[in-house]
Amino acid sequence: MNRIIFIGYMGAGKTTVGKALSKELGIPFYDLDWYIQSRMRKTVAQLFTERGEEGFRQVEYNMLHEVAEFENVIISCGGGTPCFFDNIDYMNGQGETVYLKATPEVLYGHLKMGKSVRPLLVGKTENELLTFIKQQLSVREPYYKKAKHVLDVSLMDDYEKIKITVQELRKLLNI
Question: Among 24, 36, 52, 76, which residue carries the largest CB count within 10 Å?
Fold first, then answer.
């Protein structure tokens, strides 16, 4: 095994699944947003504010190319990462990409609690949030579907189901 890269919409559970798989396999886990924050010494929200989305996406691109060179790692990417530049093609060339797929309603349920910390969701009402998720998912899903593997995570809502998801992933990836 070399690299496993999780993609999917924000709130799908990429970090949760990545950490759980990392613990089970005993290999390092990197959340790309956390990596960016560590390297840039600023939050993703601060980078969005200071540089705009385009500036943030350039930083994200550079950091993706850095972390995806590490050997034997699990990486979770931000929801937009595969949708900019040639990122999805690059990730597919670097390792096993897995799209964690969830319905807009499930994503909404996960995101409505933490929307204040996600730059693209700040200030949206609950109705606006669901509409936004549906619209953005329709734009992003063609990129997500380019992943080598797809795993439905719509029912991953407690610790036991996370463990089941990790086992499904291990079968899917033959690890």
Answer: 76
d(CA 13, CA 23): 15
- Contact in structure between 40 and 59 (CB atoms under 8 Å): yes
Q: Which pLDDT tens digit goes with each residue over 79-109? A: 999 999 999 999 999 999 999 999 999 999 8
pLDDT digits (tens, 9 = 90+) for 23-58: 999 999 999 999 999 999 999 989 999 999 999 999
Tokens representing residue 88 in the block: 């999805």
Side chain identity at 20, as an amino acid letter? A
**Which pLDDT score, from 0 to 100, does residue 116 have?**
59
**Which of 7, 174, 10 has the alpha carbon at shortest distance from 90?**
7
Contact 3, 73 (CB under 8 A): yes
**What confidence score (pLDDT) does residue 115 get?**
63
The DSSP secondary-structure symbol of 118 reads S
What one-letter code names the amino acid at 109?
G
- The pTM of the full predicted model, rounded to 2 decimals, is 0.94
The DSSP result for 58-80, as a single string, is: HHHHHHHHHHTTSSSEEEE--TT
State the greatest distance between any 2 C-alpha atoms of the chain, in Å, as a whole number: 43
CA gap 175, 117 in Å, rounded: 34
Whether residue 84 contacts residue 62, with contact meaning beta carbons closer than 8 Å, is answered with no
